[in-house]
Design goal:
- The protein has 145 residues and is mainly alpha-helical.
- The protein contains 7 helices and no strands.
- α2 runs antiparallel to α4.
- It is globular.
C-alpha cells in the first residue's frame, strides 16, 4: 500500500492532477446525466456507438469517481490508470480523424492531439502520484512514516 500512495511534495504533480480532474470530470458528469451541455457522449449515446453496457459503466465510473479522486488526490495512481485506459480507447476511436482537432468543423470528428496530451499527463501521475496537497500524501505521512 505504501508504494501505491507514495508521492513527493511536488507542486507540478498537484497542477497536473487538478488539471486532469477538471478536464475529465465533465465527460463523466454527462454520462450520469448531470450536465447536459458537457463534452462527450451521454451514457446512452456511448451504448449506441456499440460499446457494451458494462464497459460504458466502467468508463462512467472512471470519468466521474476517478476525476473526483484526481481532484482530491486520493488513490491517484489507480484513478490515473483507469482514465488512461478510457482515454486510450478514445484515442483509438478518434485515430481515423487524424492528428489535429476539428477547429474548423470540416472533419467528421476530433483528432487525437487532445488524447495524446491527456494520456501523457495521466502517465506522469501513474508514475509519480498526486504530489503536494494530495490525500495520498496525507495518508502516506500518517500511516507509512
Amino acid at each position: 500500500m505504501g508504494n501505491l500512495i507514495h508521492t513527493e511534495a511536488n507542486i507540478s504533480l498537484l497542477i497536473l492532477r487538478v488539471v486532469a480532474g477538471i478536464i475529465i470530470l465533465p465527460y463523466g458528469l454527462k454520462k450520469i446525466g448531470w450536465k447536459k451541455n458537457s463534452p462527450g457522449k451521454s451514457f446512452q449515446g456511448t451504448i449506441e456507438m456499440g460499446v457494451p453496457y458494462f464497459i460504458v459503466f466502467l468508463v462512467t465510473v472512471a470519468q466521474t469517481l476517478g476525476a473526483v479522486s484526481l481532484l482530491f488526490g486520493f488513490l491517484v495512481r489507480i484513478s490515473a490508470l483507469g482514465n488512461f485506459i478510457v482515454m486510450s480507447g478514445a484515442l483509438v476511436v478518434h485515430f481515423k480523424d487524424g492528428w489535429s482537432m476539428n477547429w474548423y468543423g470540416k472533419k467528421n470528428g476530433e483528432g487525437i492531439e487532445y488524447f495524446v496530451l491527456i494520456l501523457c499527463i495521466l502517465f506522469v501521475l501513474m508514475l509519480d502520484g498526486g504530489g503536494l496537497f494530495s490525500f495520498d500524501r496525507f495518508l502516506m505521512n500518517f500511516f507509512c512514516y
